[in-house]
Structure formats: C-alpha cells, structure tokens
Amino acid sequence: xxxxxxxxxxxxxxxxxxxxxxxxxxxxxxxxxREYIRDLMWLEEFVKxxxxxxxxxxxxxxxxxxxxxxxxLELQKEMKGLKINVKKALQRKKQAxxxxxxxxxxxxxRERQQDQKNWLRLGGQP
Length: 126
Prior knowledge:
The chain has 126 residues and is mostly helical. It has helices spanning 17-25, 31-48, 55-67, 69-121. The N and C termini lie far apart (82 Å). Mean pLDDT is 84; it is low at 1-7.
C-alpha cells in the first residue's frame, strides 16, 4: 500500500529502533517489503515532526496512519520516549553550563581578591 515512492535515501536518518528492527527482519529483494519500510520511514518522519505541514502531507499522513495503526502507535510511543530523553539531556547540559559559569565566577572573584591583597601588600591604595 505504498503511497510514497522513491529511494531509501533517508535510511541514515531513521531514529527509532522499531523501524530499524523491521528493516532487519525484511528482505530487500521483496518489493512489497521495501515499500512497507518506505511507508514506515515516512510515518516516522510525520510523528517526529508532530504531524504533516501541508495539505498533501495531511493526506499522506492519514493514509499511512490508517494503513498501519499498530505501527503508528509504536512509533508514537518510541518517539515520545526519545523526545523525553532529548529533553532530559538538554536540561542536564544547561545545568552543567550553569555550574561551569558559577565556578568561573567564583574563580574570577578569588583571583580579584588575591590581586587586591597583592596590590595592598605592595603599598597600593584600596
């Protein structure tokens, strides 16, 4: 039931283990299986982007979603988990950056205090 034709050029952009596992279980020599994988790749893309962004995309998305309801739910579930993991990773990165900035400020404060002590020790005015 492939509504999307074209090469499997987006294969390196597959994000879900679900689609990768499907590819491993199917044969390239079977044209129907190749079309099925293309459809799953497009369905994954729609799920990743939060749905279609054009009228033609909406037709394609709903056709794929209706043709592969179980696959759609699996992709949604896995993508939700990936988004949560990405969000957590970004939060950890921001937290690490804030800590690094705080340590830098503390280091600069200590250096400034040490410079001031040295200045005063050398007879400079406060």
